Design the sequence.
C-alpha cells in the first residue's frame, strides 16, 4: 500500500470531523458508539501525524522523499477572479509538532473523559463537540492561509462555548460559555480587521496564503510597493486575535470562568491546546511580526504583564481549577512574551511542555474532583493518602510547572528567560519574579490540598483516568530531553552563562520554601499575612476589578445606555413620532377635511362657487 | 423558450387555485396540495440552479410572451446567476414554510390560499425580466401579508401587556410597503418614459442604455426614487420600522417568508433595476447608501440588543443584517456584490430557521418574552440544537453560509469604504451579543416547572423543515463555490458595466511584481530566532 | 344704444342674484326659484349672443333650456312635497342628517 | 332630412323601450310586475345587439352634426349598458324597498341609460346639455326613491339643488362659449379657438362647462354632494351614480375638451391636473374616518375621479386610452363592490361598517368579493384597478407632471389603508352573530363574472387595450 502524503495529511484533519458528523447523525442516543468514534478518530489522527513525522524524518527509501517538509496540499474553497481561498493542510515542523500535541494530548484526554463523564446524560453530545473541537483545532494547526486559520479559530471558539456550557442547566456555566465566546468575538473583531487589512495591503494578486505572503511581503516592502507604515497597525490588529484566544491581559477574563466546563475540557481546550492557538498563530506568521519591531515590543509587554498579573491572582485563589487557570494565563504570558522577544522556537517549546504538564495538572485536578466532588482547596487536604497516584501526577505536573530543574518546564522556561535576559532586562526581571510566584502558588495548592489532614475521604479514580495521567506525567518529565527546539530548527545555541538558570533555580527555591513555611510548617500564619496585606489581598481577590468594569460596561453602558438609547430612538422617534406621527397626521387630515361636509346644502353651494371663482381667477389672471 | 420558470411560478399559483376550489374543511388535502405545489417549485428551482450555465452567463431559461404590445410590455421570465440563487432560496423557504404551517389549525384553507399567493408573487419578482411584471408581482407579494398577519398572527406583548397589536403591525407593514412600492413605481415609470425605448423589458432596456445612456441628471434623480422605494422593503434605515414589528406579529411560517425572502425583494430590485439601469446615478448616491448601511448594521444591532421579545430581536437583527447586503451592493465591486447576494441567500435561510424555531417555542410555551423563558433545552433538545445553530449562523460562524457571504462583503468593500467595513465587522460582534443572549435566555438555565408540558418536534416529518434549512446553510457554508460561481457570472458583468474603471483602476504594481523571482522551495517557516 | 354688453351685464347680474339667492334662502322653493333665475340668466345671454351673431342657434337652445328648467322644477317640487310630507319642513338647513 | 336609422338605432330603441316599460308598468297586473326586471334586461340586451350591429369604424355625424357615432361612443355605450344591467341585478335584493314602484324605477333607469347613451355621442353643447339633464333628472328621482326614508329624500334634495346649480353654471358656460364661437357645435368652437384670439369670456365659458361636468365626475370642489347622496340614496342608484354617471361625465368631458378645445390644452390640462390632485387627496383622506360603507365608497369614488382627471390631464390620445382602461376596470371593480354591498346591506340590515364585522365567517363569498373588489379599487395587482392606475400614472409621467404622479402614488397607499380597514373588519374582527347567509344564484353568477373580469383585466390586458386602441379616438 502506498500512502500518499496528502492522503495522510487530510486524514489528520478530517477524521475528527468524520467522527463529529457520525456522532451527530447516528450516535445521539448511543453512548458507547460516540465515545468509540471520537477516540478512534482522534487516535487515527494521532497515528497519521506520527506516521507523517516518522516518514518525514526517517524514510529515505524514496528519492526524493515524498514526505518532504514543508508539504502542502489544498483544495480550492472559493475561487473567484481576484479572490482565491483554499482549504488545505500545511505540514511543516511547526504544524507537525502542534498536531502531535493536539492529537496526542487530546487522545489521552478523550480516553480520560470516558471515565470522567461516565455519569453524564449528554455523553454523546460531549464527545461530538470534543471531536468537532479536535477538527477545528487541527484546522488552525494545519491551516495554509489566514482564512482557514480564522475559520478554525472561530470554530474552536464555538466548541469551547459549547463545552464550557456543557452543563447548561447551571446558570454560571451558561454565562461562562457566553462570556468566553463574547470576549473572543471582541478580540476577533480586531483579528478579522487585521486579516482584511493585510490582504488589502497587496496591490495585486492578493492572497491569504501563508507561504506566498511570507515570500512576497519582504520583497514588496523592499521595492516600496507595500508601505511599512501600515504594517504596525496590521500587526497590532492581528495580535488582537491571540489576546483573545490566548487570554492575554486585558481580555483574560473569560479563561477563569471557563473552568465551569468539565475538567477534561479545561485540560484540553483551556490549558493545552486552544488557548495556545494564539501563540501558535504568532509562530506560524512570525515572518510578519518580525518585520515590525514595535509590535513585537507590545507583544512582549502584553505577555509579561499577563504572566505577572495572572500569577498574582493565583496567589489568592482557592478554587483548584481556577488556580490552574491563572497559572495557564501566566504561562501563556510567558509564551507570548517569548514571541515578542523574537523567540518563536522558545515559545513553541514552552507551549509543548506546558501542554503536557498543564494537561496533567488539570487531569489530576479532575481526578480529585471526580474522587471528592470538591474543588475548593480549603475543603480538601491529605489527598496524598487517599489518592496516591493522582497526587503523584499532580506533584510531577506541579514541579514541571514551577520549573523544577530536570523537568520539562525548567528547560522551556529557561529558554524564555535567557531570551528575555538577552533582549529586554525589565521583562526578564518581571518574568523571574513570576517564576518565583509560580513556584509559590503551585506549592501552596499542593500543601493545602494534598498534604496535611484529610477532610472526608476521596477515592482513587479508575484506570481510564489514571493511565492518561501516567502518560502525561511521563511526557512532562522527558519533554525537555527529546530535542524539540532542534526539531523546530534551532541549532547549536548554548546557554552562554549559568547566571539565568541559576537565578531561576534560586527564585523557584525561594517560592517553594515560602510556601512550605506558610502552608505546611505554619511558621508564618497565612491568616496574619492576609490581614497584614488586606488591601492588596482584596484587590487581588476581586481580580483587579476588571470583571466589574467589564460587567459595568456590558450591562450598564452597552445594554442600558447605548442599546437603551437606540431602542428609545426607535420606539419614540422613529416609530412613535415619524411613522405613527405621519399616520396620525394623515388620519387627522381626513378628519379635518370631512368637516367641509357639513350636511348643509348651502355650504356645498358656497364651496362650489368658491371653486369656480378660484378656477376662473387662476385661469384668467394672465 | 423554457418551461422551467413557468413551472416554478405556476405551481404555487395553480396550487392556490386548486385550494380555492377545495372544500374549506378538507385540511389534509389543502396541506397536501400546498406541499405538492411548493415541492414542484423547489424541484424546478434546484433544476434551474443545476442547469444554469455559468460560463455563458446572462439570462437563461427565458420565456417571452408579448403581453401589452402597445406599451412594450412582455411576459418575460428568466433567471441569471443572481436571481437563480434567490429563486432557490425562496423555493427552500416556501417549501419549509408550508411544512412549518402544519401548526396552523384555524381557517386552514384561507391560510394556505394567501400563503401560496404570497409565494407566487415572490417567485414572480425573482423570475420577471420585465419591469411591469416585476412591479406587478412585487405588489402582489405584499398584499397577502395583510390577512396572513392580521388573521393568524399574534400581538407583541411585554409583561403580558400588548405593545403592538397584530392589527397595527399588519396595517403598518402593508401600507409602508405599498408606499415604498408607489415611490418605486414613480421611478420605474419615469425611467420607462425617459428611456425612450418604449419597452419595459429589462434586458432590452439594458441594451438600449448601452447605446444611448440616460442623461446624468435624470439618472441622479431617478436612482433615489428606486432606491428608497425598494429600500423600504430591504429594509433600509430609517424606513425599517415596519419590519421587526411585522415579523414579530406574523405567524412563524409567514415570518419565515417575510424575513427570509420578502426583504430580499428590495435588495434584489436594487441590483436588478436600480444598479443595472442607472449605473451613473448609482455611483453618485452609493456613498450615502453605505453610510445608511452602517446605521442599519450598528443601530439595528443595538436595538435588537435591547429587545426582550424573541421575534422582535430576530426582526431587528434582520434589519441589521440586511445592512450588510445593502453595504455589499453599495460597494459596487464584484466580490462585495457576490457577497451581498450570497448573504441574501444565507440570511434568508438563517432567519427562516430562526423564525421557525421561535414559532415552535411560541406554540409550545405561548410566550416569546425572554424573561419568561429559560431552560428549554431540557424539553426541546432538537429545537435547542437548531437554535444554537441559527444563532451561530447569524453571528457568522465559519461553516455557515453567512460567514462566507459576510467575508466576501468585507473583502470586496475594504477598498471602497474601509470605515463602513470596520463598522460592519463590529456589527458581527453586536450580533453575537444578542444572539447568545437569546440562546442563553431561551434554552439554557435550569429546567422550569411551567414548561413541563412542552414538547419537542418528534417525527422526522416535523423535523424535516429544520433539517432542510440547516443542511442548506451548512452545505453552502462549507462549499460555497457552486453558488458563488453562478452569482459571480452575473454580478461581475453588472459591476464591470457600471464601473468600467474597476478593472483598470489598479495602477502600476503589476510591473513590480513581475520582477519577483519565481516561487521556490522554502525552508521551515518557524526557524527564525533572535532579533536582526 | 343698448348693445350686447348691456345684455351680458344684465345676464351676469341675474346669474349673481340667483346664486346669492341659493346661498341665502333656506326655503327649498325659494332655492328652486333662484335656480330658475340662473337658467334665465343663461337664456338671456344666449338670446343676446344669438342676436349678436345673427343666427338662431342660441334661440333654439333657449327653448330647450326652458323645457329642461320646467322639468327640473317639476322634479324639485316633487321632492319638496316629499320633504314637506315626511319631514314637515321646507327649510333645507333642517334637512342635514347626512354629513361628514 | 332622413333619419339615419342604423346609427341611431340604439337610442331610438331605448326610447321605444321606455314606452314599452311604461305601458307594461301600467298594464301588467301587480303580481306580474316582479318580472319587469327581465323586461329591462331584455331591453338592454337588445340595445347591446343593436350596438354590436353598428360595428363599422369611422365617425358618423348625425342630426345636424350634433350627434357623433364612432367607435369611441360605441365603446362607452357598451359600458353604460353593462352598468345598467348590473344595476338591474342589484335591484333584485333591493326590490322590497321599491315594492309597487318597481316599474317606474326601471323606467327611470332606462331614461338614465338613454341620457348616458346620448352623452357618449355628444358633439354639440346642446346635445351635451340634453343628455346630461336626461341622465341627471332620472337620478334625482331615483336618489329620492325611498320616499319614506328621510335620508333618501335628503339625498334627492341635495342632489337636485346642487345638480341644478351645476346645470346653471353649465348652461351659462355654454352661453359664453356660444357667444364666443357663434355656434354650439364643437367643430365651430374648436375652429374659433384655433383661429383665436381667445377672449377671457371664452375661457370662462369653457371652465364653467368643465365645472358642470366636474360635478358629474365628482371632482373637488364640485364633489360636495357625493358623500351625502351616496349615503342616502338607494344602493343600486348609488352604483349607477358612481359608475354610470361618472363615466358619462368623463366621456362628455373628453368629447368636449378634445372635440371643442384641443388648442386650449395648455389651459385645461393644468386645470385638470390641479383638480386631480385636490380630488385624490380629498377623496382618499376623507374616506379614512368613515363609518358607513356607502359614504366611504362615496369618498373613494371622489378619489377615483382624481385618477381619471389625472389621465385626462395628460392631454393626449394615450391619456384618454389610459382613462378608458381605468373606467372599464373601475366599472367591473366598483360594480362588484356595490353588488356585494347591496346584498350585504339587505342581509345585515344596515350599511354601517360595524355590521361588516366578521363577514368572512358569515358569508365567505361576499367577503371575498368585497376583498377582491376593494383591492382592485385600491390598485393592487393582479387586479384590474392596478393596471388602470398604472396606465394613468404612466401617461401623467409622460406629460411631465411628476408631482401629480407622486400624489397619485401616495394616494394608492392612503386608499389601501381605508379599504384594508374594512377588510380588517370582515376578516379579523369577530362577527356580532354567527348566522350565515348566501347570495341567490343570479347575484352569485353576476358577482362571479364581475370578479372574473376584475382578475382577467388585471392579468390579461392586451385584448381590452387593443380594443381601446382601435376605439378611442376622442
Sequence:
Amino acid at each position: 500500500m502506498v500512502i500518499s502524503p496528502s492522503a495522510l495529511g487530510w486524514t489528520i484533519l478530517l477524521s475528527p470531523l468524520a467522527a463529529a458528523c457520525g456522532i451527530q447523525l447516528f450516535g445521539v442516543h448511543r453512548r458507547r458508539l460516540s465515545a468509540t468514534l471520537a477516540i478512534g478518530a482522534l487516535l487515527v489522527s494521532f497515528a497519521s501525524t506520527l506516521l507523517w513525522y516518522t516518514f518525514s524524518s526517517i524514510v529515505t527509501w524514496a528519492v526524493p522523499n515524498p514526505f518532504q517538509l514543508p508539504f502542502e496540499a489544498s483544495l480550492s474553497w472559493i475561487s473567484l477572479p481576484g479572490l482565491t481561498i483554499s482549504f488545505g493542510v500545511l505540514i511543516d515542523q511547526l504544524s507537525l509538532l502542534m498536531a502531535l500535541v493536539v492529537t496526542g494530548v487530546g487522545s489521552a484526554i478523550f480516553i480520560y473523559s470516558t471515565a470522567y463523564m461516565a455519569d453524564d446524560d449528554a455523553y454523546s453530545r460531549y464527545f461530538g463537540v470534543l471531536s468537532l473541537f479536535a477538527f477545528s483545532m487541527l484546522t488552525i494547526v494545519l491551516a495554509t492561509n489566514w482564512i482557514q486559520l480564522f475559520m478554525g479559530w472561530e470554530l474552536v471558539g464555538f466548541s469551547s462555548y459549547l463545552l464550557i456550557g456543557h452543563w447548561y442547566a447551571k446558570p454560571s456555566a451558561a454565562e461562562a460559555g457566553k462570556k468566553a465566546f463574547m470576549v473572543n468575538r471582541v478580540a476577533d473583531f480586531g483579528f478579522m480587521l487585521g486579516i482584511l487589512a493585510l490582504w488589502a495591503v497587496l496591490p495585486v494578486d492578493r492572497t491569504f496564503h501563508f507561504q506566498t505572503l511570507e515570500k512576497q511581503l519582504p520583497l514588496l516592502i523592499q521595492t516600496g510597493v507595500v508601505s511599512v507604515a501600515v504594517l504596525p497597525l496590521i500587526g497590532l490588529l492581528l495580535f488582537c486575535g491571540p489576546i483573545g484566544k490566548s487570554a492575554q491581559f486585558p481580555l483574560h477574563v473569560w479563561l477563569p470562568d471557563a473552568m465551569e466546563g468539565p475538567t477534561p475540557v479545561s485540560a484540553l481546550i483551556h490549558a493545552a491546546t486552544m488557548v495556545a492557538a494564539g501563540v501558535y498563530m504568532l509562530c506560524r506568521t512570525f515572518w510578519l511580526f518580525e518585520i515590525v519591531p514595535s509590535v513585537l515590543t507590545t507583544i512582549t509587554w502584553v505577555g509579561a504583564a499577563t504572566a505577572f498579573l495572572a500569577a498574582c491572582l493565583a496567589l489568592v485563589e482557592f478554587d483548584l481549577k481556577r488556580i490552574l487557570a491563572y497559572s495557564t494565563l501566566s504561562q501563556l504570558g510567558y509564551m507570548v512574551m517569548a514571541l515578542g522577544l523574537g523567540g518563536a522556537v522558545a515559545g513553541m517549546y514552552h507551549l509543548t511542555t506546558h501542554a503536557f504538564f498543564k494537561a496533567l495538572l488539570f487531569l489530576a485536578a479532575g481526578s480529585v474532583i471526580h474522587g471528592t466532588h470538591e474543588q475548593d482547596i480549603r475543603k480538601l487536604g491529605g489527598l496524598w493518602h487517599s489518592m496516591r497516584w493522582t497526587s503523584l501526577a499532580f506533584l510531577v505536573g506541579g514541579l514541571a510547572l514551577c520549573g523544577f530543574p530536570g523537568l520539562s518546564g525548567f528547560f522551556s522556561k529557561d529558554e524564555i528567560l535567557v531570551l528575555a535576559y538577552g533582549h529586554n532586562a525589565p521583562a526578564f526581571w518581571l518574568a523571574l519574579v513570576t517564576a518565583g510566584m509560580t513556584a509559590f502558588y503551585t506549592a501552596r495548592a499542593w500543601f493545602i490540598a494534598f498534604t496535611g489532614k484529610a477532610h472526608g475521604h476521596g477515592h482513587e479514580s479508575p484506570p481510564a483516568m489514571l493511565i492518561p495521567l501516567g502518560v502525561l506525567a511521563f511526557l512532562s518529565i522527558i519533554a525537555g530531553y527529546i530535542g524539540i527546539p532542534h526539531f523546530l530548527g534551532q541549532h547549536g545555541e548554548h546557554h552562554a552563562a549559568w547566571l539565568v538558570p541559576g537565578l531561576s533555580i534560586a527564585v523557584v527555591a525561594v517560592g517553594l520554601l515560602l510556601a512550605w513555611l506558610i502552608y505546611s510548617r505554619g511558621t508564618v500564619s497565612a491568616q496574619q499575612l492576609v490581614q497584614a496585606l488586606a488591601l492588596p489581598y482584596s484587590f487581588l481577590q476581586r481580580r483587579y476589578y476588571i470583571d466589574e468594569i467589564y460587567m459595568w460596561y456590558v450591562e450598564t453602558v452597552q445594554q442600558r445606555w447605548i442599546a437603551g438609547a437606540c431602542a428609545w430612538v426607535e420606539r419614540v422617534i422613529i416609530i412613535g413620532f415619524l411613522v405613527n406621527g405621519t399616520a396620525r397626521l394623515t388620519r387627522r387630515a381626513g378628519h379635518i377635511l370631512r368637516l367641509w361636509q357639513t350636511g348643509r346644502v348651502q355650504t356645498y353651494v358656497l364651496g362650489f362657487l368658491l371653486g369656480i371663482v378660484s378656477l376662473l381667477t387662476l385661469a384668467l389672471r394672465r | 423558450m423554457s418551461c422551467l420558470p413557468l413551472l416554478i411560478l405556476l405551481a404555487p399559483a395553480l396550487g392556490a387555485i386548486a385550494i380555492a376550489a377545495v372544500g374549506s374543511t378538507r385540511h389534509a388535502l389543502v396541506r397536501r396540495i400546498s406541499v405538492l405545489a411548493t415541492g414542484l417549485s423547489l424541484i424546478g428551482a434546484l433544476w434551474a440552479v443545476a442547469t444554469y450555465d455559468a460560463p455563458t452567463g446572462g439570462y437563461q431559461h427565458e420565456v417571452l410572451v408579448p403581453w401589452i404590445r402597445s406599451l412594450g410590455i412582455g411576459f418575460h421570465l428568466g433567471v441569471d446567476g443572481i436571481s437563480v440563487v434567490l429563486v432557490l432560496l425562496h423555493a427552500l423557504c416556501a417549501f419549509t414554510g408550508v411544512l412549518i404551517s402544519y401548526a396552523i389549525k384555524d381557517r386552514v384553507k384561507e391560510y394556505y390560499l394567501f400563503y401560496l399567493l404570497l409565494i407566487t408573487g415572490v417567485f414572480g419578482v425573482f423570475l420577471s425580466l420585465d419591469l411591469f411584471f416585476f412591479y406587478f408581482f412585487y405588489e402582489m407579494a405584499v398584499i397577502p401579508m395583510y390577512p396572513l398577519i392580521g388573521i393568524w398572527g399574534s400581538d407583541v406583548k411585554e409583561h403580558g401587556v400588548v405593545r403592538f397589536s397584530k392589527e397595527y403591525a399588519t396595517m403598518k407593514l402593508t401600507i409602508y410597503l405599498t408606499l415604498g412600492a408607489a415611490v418605486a413605481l414613480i421611478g420605474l415609470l419615469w425611467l420607462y418614459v425617459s428611456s425612450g425605448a418604449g419597452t419595459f423589458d429589462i434586458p432590452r432596456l439594458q441594451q438600449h442604455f448601452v447605446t444611448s445612456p440616460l442623461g446624468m441628471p435624470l439618472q441622479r434623480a431617478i436612482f433615489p426614487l428606486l432606491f428608497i422605494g425598494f429600500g423600504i422593503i430591504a429594509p433600509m434605515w430609517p424606513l425599517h420600522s415596519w419590519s421587526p414589528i411585522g415579523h414579530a406579529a406574523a405567524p412563524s411560517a409567514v415570518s419565515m417568508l417575510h424575513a427570509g425572502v420578502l426583504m430580499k425583494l428590495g435588495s434584489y430590485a436594487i441590483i436588478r433595476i436600480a444598479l443595472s439601469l442607472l449605473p451613473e446615478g448609482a455611483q453618485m448616491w452609493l456613498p450615502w447608501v453605505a453610510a445608511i448601511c452602517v446605521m442599519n448594521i450598528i443601530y439595528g444591532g443595538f436595538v435588537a440588543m435591547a429587545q426582550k421579545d424573541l421575534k422582535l430581536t430576530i426582526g431587528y437583527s434582520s434589519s441589521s443584517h440586511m445592512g450588510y447586503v445593502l453595504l455589499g451592493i453599495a460597494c459596487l465591486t464584484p466580490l462585495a456584490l457576490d457577497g451581498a447576494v450570497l448573504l441574501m441567500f444565507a440570511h434568508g435561510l438563517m432567519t427562516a430557521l430562526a423564525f421557525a424555531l421561535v414559532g415552535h417555542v411560541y406554540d409550545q410555551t405561548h410566550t416569546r418574552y425572554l424573561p419568561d423563558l429559560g431552560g428549554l433545552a431540557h424539553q426541546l433538545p432538537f429545537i435547542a440544537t437548531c437554535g444554537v445553530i441559527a444563532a451561530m449562523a447569524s453571528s457568522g460562524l465559519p461553516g455557515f453560509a453567512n460567514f462566507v457571504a459576510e467575508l466576501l462583503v468585507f473583502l470586496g468593500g475594504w477598498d471602497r469604504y474601509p470605515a463602513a467595513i470596520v463598522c460592519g465587522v463590529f456589527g458581527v460582534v453586536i450580533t453575537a451579543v444578542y444572539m447568545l443572549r437569546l440562546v442563553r435566555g431561551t434554552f439554557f438555565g435550569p429546567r422550569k416547572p411551567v414548561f413541563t408540558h412542552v414538547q419537542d418536534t418528534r417525527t422526522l416529518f416535523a423535523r424535516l423543515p429544520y433539517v432542510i434549512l440547516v443542511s442548506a446553510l451548512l452545505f453552502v457554508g462549507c462549499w460555497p463555490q457552486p453558488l458563488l460561481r453562478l452569482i459571480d457570472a452575473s454580478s461581475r458583468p453588472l459591476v464591470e458595466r457600471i464601473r468600467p474603471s474597476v478593472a483598470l483602476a489598479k495602477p502600476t504594481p503589476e510591473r513590480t511584481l513581475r520582477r519577483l523571482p519565481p516561487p521556490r522551495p522554502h525552508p521551515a517557516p518557524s526557524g527564525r530566532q533572535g532579533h536582526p | 344704444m343698448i348693445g350686447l354688453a348691456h345684455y351680458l351685464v344684465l345676464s351676469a347680474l341675474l346669474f349673481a342674484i340667483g346664486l346669492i339667492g341659493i346661498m341665502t334662502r333656506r326655503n327649498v322653493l325659494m332655492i328652486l326659484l333662484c335656480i330658475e333665475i340662473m337658467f334665465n340668466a343663461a337664456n338671456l345671454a344666449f338670446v343676446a349672443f344669438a342676436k349678436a351673431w345673427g343666427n338662431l342657434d342660441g334661440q333654439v337652445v333657449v327653448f330647450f333650456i326652458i323645457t329642461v328648467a320646467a322639468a327640473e322644477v317639476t322634479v324639485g317640487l316633487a321632492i319638496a312635497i316629499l320633504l314637506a310630507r315626511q319631514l314637515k319642513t321646507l327649510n333645507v338647513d333642517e334637512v342635514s342628517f347626512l354629513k361628514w | 332630412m332622413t333619419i339615419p336609422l342604423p346609427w341611431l338605432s340604439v337610442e331610438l330603441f331605448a326610447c321605444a323601450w321606455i314606452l314599452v316599460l311604461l305601458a307594461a308598468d301600467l298594464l301588467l297586473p301587480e303580481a306580474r310586475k316582479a318580472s319587469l326586471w327581465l323586461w329591462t334586461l331584455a331591453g338592454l340586451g337588445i340595445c347591446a345587439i343593436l350596438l354590436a350591429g353598428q360595428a363599422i369604424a369611422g365617425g358618423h355625424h348625425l342630426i345636424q352634426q350634433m350627434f357623433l357615432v364612432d367607435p369611441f361612443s360605441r365603446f362607452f355605450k357598451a359600458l353604460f349598458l353593462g352598468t345598467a344591467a348590473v344595476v338591474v341585478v342589484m335591484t333584485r335584493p333591493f326590490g322590497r324597498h321599491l315594492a309597487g314602484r318597481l316599474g317606474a324605477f326601471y323606467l327611470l333607469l332606462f331614461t338614465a341609460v338613454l341620457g348616458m347613451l346620448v352623452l357618449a355621442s355628444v358633439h354639440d353643447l346642446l346635445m351635451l346639455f340634453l343628455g346630461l339633464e336626461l341622465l341627471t333628472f332620472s337620478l334625482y328621482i331615483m336618489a329620492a326613491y325611498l320616499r319614506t326614508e328621510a335620508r333618501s329624500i335628503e339625498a334627492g334634495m341635495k342632489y337636485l339643488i346642487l345638480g341644478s346649480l351645476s346645470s346653471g353654471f353649465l348652461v351659462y358656460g355654454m352661453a359664453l362659449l356660444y357667444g364666443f364661437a357663434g355656434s354650439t357645435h364643437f367643430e365651430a368652437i374648436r375652429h374659433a379657438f384655433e383661429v383665436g384670439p381667445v377672449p377671457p369670456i371664452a375661457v370662462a365659458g369653457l371652465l364653467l362647462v368643465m365645472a358642470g361636468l366636474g360635478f358629474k365626475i365628482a371632482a373637488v370642489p364640485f364633489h360636495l354632494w357625493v358623500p351625502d347622496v351616496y349615503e342616502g340614496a338607494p344602493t343600486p342608484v348609488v352604483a349607477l351614480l358612481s359608475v354610470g354617471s361618472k363615466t358619462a361625465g368623463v366621456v362628455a368631458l373628453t368629447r368636449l375638451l378634445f372635440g371643442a378645445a384641443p388648442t386650449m390644452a395648455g389651459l385645461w390640462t393644468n386645470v385638470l391636473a390641479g383638480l386631480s390632485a385636490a380630488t385624490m387627496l380629498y377623496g382618499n383622506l376623507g374616506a379614512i374616518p368613515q363609518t358607513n360603507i356607502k359614504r366611504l365608497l362615496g369618498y373613494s369614488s371622489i378619489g377615483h375621479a382624481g385618477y381619471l382627471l389625472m389621465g385626462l390631464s395628460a392631454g393626449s390620445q394615450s391619456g384618454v386610452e389610459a382613462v378608458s382602461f381605468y373606467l372599464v376596470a373601475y366599472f367591473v371593480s366598483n360594480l362588484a363592490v356595490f353588488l356585494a354591498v347591496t346584498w350585504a346591506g339587505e342581509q345585515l340590515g344596515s350599511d354601517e361598517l360595524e355590521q361588516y364585522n366578521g363577514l368572512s365567517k358569515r358569508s365567505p363569498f361576499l367577503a371575498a368579493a368585497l376583498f377582491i373588489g376593494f383591492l382592485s379599487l385600491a390598485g393592487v395587482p393582479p387586479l384590474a384597478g392596478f393596471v388602470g392606475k398604472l396606465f394613468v400614472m404612466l401617461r401623467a409621467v409622460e406629460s411631465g407632471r411628476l408631482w401629480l404622479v407622486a400624489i397619485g402614488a401616495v394616494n394608492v397607499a392612503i386608499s389601501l389603508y381605508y379599504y384594508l380597514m374594512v377588510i380588517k373588519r370582515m376578516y379579523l374582527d369577530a362577527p356580532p352573530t354567527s348566522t350565515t347567509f348566501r347570495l341567490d344564484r343570479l347575484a352569485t353568477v353576476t358577482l362571479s363574472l364581475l370578479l372574473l373580469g376584475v382578475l382577467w383585466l388585471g392579468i390579461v390586458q392586451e385584448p381590452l387595450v387593443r380594443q381601446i386602441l382601435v376605439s378611442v379616438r376622442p
